[in-house]
Amino acid sequence: MSTRTATELYEEMKCMTVEERIRFFSLSLAEVHRELQESIAQIESMQHALAESELNHRQLVETAQDAVITIDLSGQVINWNHAAERMFGWRAEESIGSDLSDMIIPQEFREQHKRGLMRFQASQPSTILNRTIEIMAMHRVKGQFPIELSIWPHQQSGKQLFSAFIRDITDRKQREHLAWLHANFDTLTGLPNRRLLVNRLEQAITLAISGQKNVALLFIDLDRFKPVNDTYGHSVGDELLRLVGFRLQSCLHEEDTLARLGGDEFVALLPDLNSDDMSLQPAIDSMTAALSQSFLINDIVISISGSIGVAVFPRDAQDADSLLNCADKAMYTAKKTV
């Protein structure tokens, strides 16, 4: 039925008898009642669906493996799920209504947290909302640990809230650290390997250029090491390499780097040197003396020595790889005189 205007209805009713008018109003009221009942049923269905959705949401939050925490603009906790209880050591009844920064934010980040809330109130851009960051959090008893944090700002009943989704990444960070150690350090001696040496050498060269300084490499190759392996076995040879690394490292300063390239080859990186080559001589003499002293391994007295080649930036080479090659060649030249 097409919709009629009030004027059209009035004109139509003027032509009706009393009985027709009564019947018209009865049908109209019945139609209105039917439509009203349908609307009420739709509203009730929507309310039921909303309640069911909210229940599902609460159950999802409570059973989530990640911590879900909601705070208001003042920083007070509104919601604290079971995973947050396990992760931070605070029960929900202790947490709700408390200031979040006093519970899980390390002291050094609390001022930053408060400034972030103030920036949001002032409609200033945020550096952490709607993105995932890695940061340190604080357990009630165990202290600080690394987390992955995502913060979602939203409105609820006219109030501004912030929901944080938090994942403990301690295990992942430990795996990453172990992978980094494996990639950058020699497993036998614990010294930096070639990769880390080149990285530090490149950094030292960059600093040397800006500070008009020199960088030196001392390439050390052990003499008479192969007979040790052949005579006493690799276990004795490995222990000798560990002791050599310890002795050589004791000859250097804290800012220097001693690396093992593999086999019986070691390299010492001496950064931030003056142009006088004589500043290298104490380190060379100390290393030579350290290697000339006998080693005692499993009641076996072992005597070796070392050949040392020297290369200096910028005199001998202009980049890390070339400088390392120059030191290697200088070592072989020194070895011919042994």
From TrEMBL:
Residues 29-56 form a coiled coil. Residues 53-108 form the PAS domain. Keywords: Coiled coil. This is Diguanylate cyclase. InterPro entries: Biofilm_reg_signaling, GGDEF_dom, Nucleotide_cyclase, PAS, PAS-like_dom_sf, PAS_fold, Rev_trsase/Diguanyl_cyclase. GO terms for biological process: regulation of DNA-templated transcription. Transmembrane segments: none annotated. PANTHER family: BIOFILM ARCHITECTURE MAINTENANCE PROTEIN MBAA (PTHR44757:SF2), DIGUANYLATE CYCLASE DGCP (PTHR44757). Residues 213-338 form the GGDEF domain. Pfam families: GGDEF (PF00990), PAS (PF00989).
